[in-house]
Amino acid sequence: MHLKSYLFYLLLGTFLYPGLVAGQDDRPIDRQALVSRQNVLLEAVDTLGSLSVGNGEFAFTVDASGLQTFALEYEQGVSLGTQSQWGWHSIPNPDNYGRDDVTERYETCNDREIPVMTQHSEGRAADAANWLRSNPHRLHLGLIGLTITKTNGELIKLADLQDIDQELDLWTGKITSSYTIEGEPVKVELYGHQSEDQIAFRITSPLIKAGRLRISLRFPYGKECHVCPGYDWDANDKHQTNIIEAGGNGVSLKRSLDSTQYFVDATWEGTGILRAMANHHFELIPGKDQASFSAGIRFRNQAAEQSVSGFVATRENSEQAWQDFWAAGAAIDFSGSTDPRAAELERRIILSQYLTRIQCAGSLPPQETGLIFNSWYGKFHLEMTWWHGVHFALWDRIDLLEKSMWWYDDIIESAAATAEWQGFAGVRWPKMTGPSGRSSPSSVGEFLLWQQPHPLYFAELIYRQRPERATLEKYRDIVFRTAEFMASVAQYNEDDGKYHLCHPLIPAQEIFHATETDDPPFELAYWHYGLSVAQEWRKRLGLAPDAGWQRVIDQLAPLPQADALYLPAARAYEAYTDDDNRRDHPVVLGAYGMLPLSPKIDPEIMGNTFDEIMKHWNWQTTWGWDYPMMAMTAARLGKPEAAIDALFLDAQKNTYLVNGHNYQSQRLRIYLPGNGGLLTAVAMMAAGWDGAPDRPAPGFPADGSWRVKWEGLKKMP
Fold it and tell me: How many Å apart are CA 170 and CA 52, to the nearest integer?
């Protein structure tokens, strides 16, 4: 960063972000020192430790070679992705599979039936469900690796990389990879451009002059796979790669896969040629008259007038953008803490900020594995957007939350058609979807409801930071039409005079049967919160309250309980006596953790429920966002020690790898909702929440073991 820019941000931190300090001075945090002490360092091959560069719209993940040389060897680790927000592909649908092929009707309250798209096991319905679920799928745009030969002419293997010294410099977004091949040094410096879907690299090695080092470009077909890297190398006849422009030190390629087209542009410095090796396989061969070779490679889905940025320009772009990012947002520093977990929490926080910036801050909602490899076919799950995005608002990066809000407007008519199809008003947001907003048939996902209030929560976070009429006007349709659905789906029962959330539904704790589940407590609390926010928006706009919404707010069913514990659903009386029910997300706690205190919540009963869950839950069945959710509940309940314990709960899915990724299992090696949840919980614990105790860092223990210094964090609702 230029000195003037850095001084500006230091002054900004002093005057605008005075921080909240527990037992520590109020000097501005040294942002560069804070960030740089968490640089990722690797001295050996770690297939779970691959590193990424990116910008939210595009990400590129590399192995120990510094590029994507050993994709096969990394497939069962954190695989080597090249993915973008625009890169999607669909297998042709000659049989015209559609919604009608997979629809079943389910009874609900008041003698009604509603149609639902579900999965099937045989016949046309099964084929249709499989196609609709797996298309479109996110596309791996291509592998860029190294072709290096040994003195005997053989291609190197992963084990031939010796003396490995690889570093991710978080302050500049640079990955430097150094190693030797048969004693000969290789150094690869890599940056991701921050406003283009592009990488640039410089390779320095005597192997260039020896003619033993080349750059490989390989392009795959799309893959219909539930969890995989997203490439298919066995369908060469189903796609085309053509050189459309070449000359001097550059080339442009056109890729065609069924209805998908995109372009790859390369530029290099010094001498070099691009040679076609096979279908969809090219090699960029540096001239032997140079000790180093640099190139920029850009991916695009439409025409681009500007030339590809070279290595130096990309380096300058990355350095400035990353330094601005770290300097301008919020920060938290645990220096001086005596709790031995403080250093690890700080590591997780810094790396989670980096990862969510490059993987979750795009123009579309992110998938759970970001832009690295496909999970659930590369689609995004809208119930997870809370965990992906709320932290951006709390860490004073509201623009990154807003970046994908346009998409709700873009699909709003499709969501309205879904609500109307099921007999409801307003808009029903999809669950598992791609850019078009078409939902995917599922025997679980299509029965979930908790994604519906999320846009209301996001809009309110935005308004809290931008309390202007322009904000209200910008999001009023999303807010009001979401509320219309929420009020419409709540069914009135004349026997008890209450509005209920009725079957068929599956709560966020997904173990309960759709046809037997009513009134899950988290969803009830979220309905109360969301509709109350919508009414407040009407008031801010000078509109009268909506009488129908108010009836639902006032007469919403109470949260089900028994024995002074909140039940996960109505009539789920064995929730805490049958071990089979003590699994999956303990999301009953989210009703007073993710959400603020409301008339629906009795803190004493929630405290009992929290204690019961912490003593007896099956932690191996939980997921990465469960631990920060429990920490937020503990903080609101005045249990800061339990909040820290929840963040460090000893469970496999609470593992954070060397690169900062939240590991879940061999099937799902990374899980970005865990990273986003961690940032949300820590921000809340440090900056507080509406109604929090008036003391520094109210979610952290006050015994002096945690010295919490922060700047720029925003209070949580």
Answer: 11
Nearest Cα residue to 626 out of 384, 304, 447: 384
Whole-number pLDDT of residue 71: 98
For the chain, state the CA radius of gyration. 26
Task: List pLDDT tens digits, range 254-265.
Answer: 999 999 999 999
Listed range (16-25, 329-338, 651-660) with the worst mean pLDDT? 16-25
Q: What confidence score (pLDDT) does residue 247 get?
A: 86
Q: Which long-range contacts (CB under 8 A, 24 or more apart) does 607-613 make?
A: 607/637, 607/639, 608/564, 608/565, 609/565, 609/566, 610/634, 610/637, 610/639, 610/642, 612/565, 612/576, 613/582, 613/586, 613/588, 613/589
Question: Mean pLDDT, the chain, as a whole number?
Answer: 95
Interstrand relation of 292-300 and 260-268 (parallel, antiparallel or unpaired):
antiparallel
Helix (H) or strand (E) holding 319: helix 311-328
Q: How far apart are CA 711 and CA 16, in angstroms?
A: 9
pLDDT at 6 > cutoff 80: no
pLDDT bucket at 305, cuts 50 / 70 / 90? confident
Q: How far apart are CA 526 and CA 595, in angstroms?
A: 7
Question: What pLDDT is recorded for position 578?
Answer: 94
Q: Does the predicted model carry a pTM greater than 0.70? A: yes
| Tally of helices (H runs) and strands (E runs) in the chain | 19, 33
User: Residue 9: what pLDDT?
Assistant: 42
Q: Look at residue 432 in the predicted model and tell me its pLDDT.
A: 98
Q: For residue 158, which of 60, 81, 76, 63 has the smallest C-alpha distance?
A: 63
Task: Provide the 8-state DSSP code for 201.
Answer: E
Residue 107 token pair:
């009874």
- Within 238-394, strands assigned E span 239-247, 250-257, 260-268, 272-278, 281-286, 292-300, 331-333, 374-375, 380-381
Q: Which residue from 610, 638, 632 is spatially nearest to 683, judged by alpha carbons?
A: 632
At residue 460, the 3 state secondary structure works out as helix
Give which of 255, 304, 260 is closest to 280, Cα–Cα: 255
Q: What are the Cα distances from residue 568, in Å, to 16, 142, 460, 562, 607?
A: 43, 45, 27, 11, 15
Residue 290, pLDDT score: 96
Exposure letters 199-219 (e unless 16+ CB within 10 A, then b): bbbbbbbebbeeebbbbbbbb
**ω into residue 28 within 30 of 0, thus cis?**
no
What is the C-alpha to C-alpha distance for residues 228 and 233, in angstroms, rounded to an integer? Answer: 13
pLDDT in the model for residue 10: 41
Q: What is the DSSP letter of 546?
A: P
Residue 122: Cβ within 10 Å count? 7
Both tokens of 239, joined, read: 């796609």
